[in-house]
Amino acid sequence: MTKNHGPSIKNDEKYEALLKEGMSKQKAARIANDPNSGKKGGKAEKYDERSKKELYDKAKEVGIEGRSKMSKDGLIGALRNS
């Protein structure tokens, strides 16, 4: 049975599986909370094609700190490494 990790974790099952794989709690939470994280097949819009505002909003959604001071390239790098 999957433990309920509270309202800060949207997909408890995915979160626990990622922790078992050795991911940090922060990275596992980001992935478990992203509704697009399970989609495959390259259907997501490429970061380079998104506006800075779209990148900022995505960084906010996944909890990247310092995003307000980042350039578009900085946001792309942070999102790719999160």
Notes on the structure:
Residues 10-24, 42-55 have a biased composition (Basic and acidic residues). Residues 1-55 are annotated as: Disordered. The chain has two domains: 1-37, no CATH class; 45-82, no CATH class. The protein is elongated and about 40 Å long. The model has no long low-confidence stretch (mean pLDDT 82). Helix content is 46%, strand content 0%. It is built from four helices and no strands. The protein has helices at 12-20, 25-33, 52-62, 72-80. With 82 residues, the chain is mostly helical.
Task: Chart the SSEs and their pairings.
Elements: H1 12-20, H2 25-33, H3 52-62, H4 72-80
Give a quick precis of the structure.
This protein is mostly helical. Helix content is 46%, strand content 0%.
Shape: elongated
Number of helices: 4
> Could you give the count of β-strands?
0
Question: What is the total number of structural domains?
Answer: 2
Helix content: 40-55%
**Rg from alpha-carbon coordinates:** 14 Å
Biggest sheet architecture: none
Distance between the termini: 28 Å
Outline the low-pLDDT stretches. Answer: none
H and E order = HHHH
Q: What is the residue-averaged pLDDT?
A: 82
**Structural class of the secondary elements?**
mainly alpha
Strand content: under 5%
Organism: Algoriphagus halophytocola
Protein name: Rho termination factor
Pfam family, one: DUF7218
InterPro entries: DUF7218 (IPR055642)
Summarize this structure as a short list of keywords or feature phrases.
mainly alpha; 46% helix; 82 residues; DUF7218; Rho termination factor; single chain
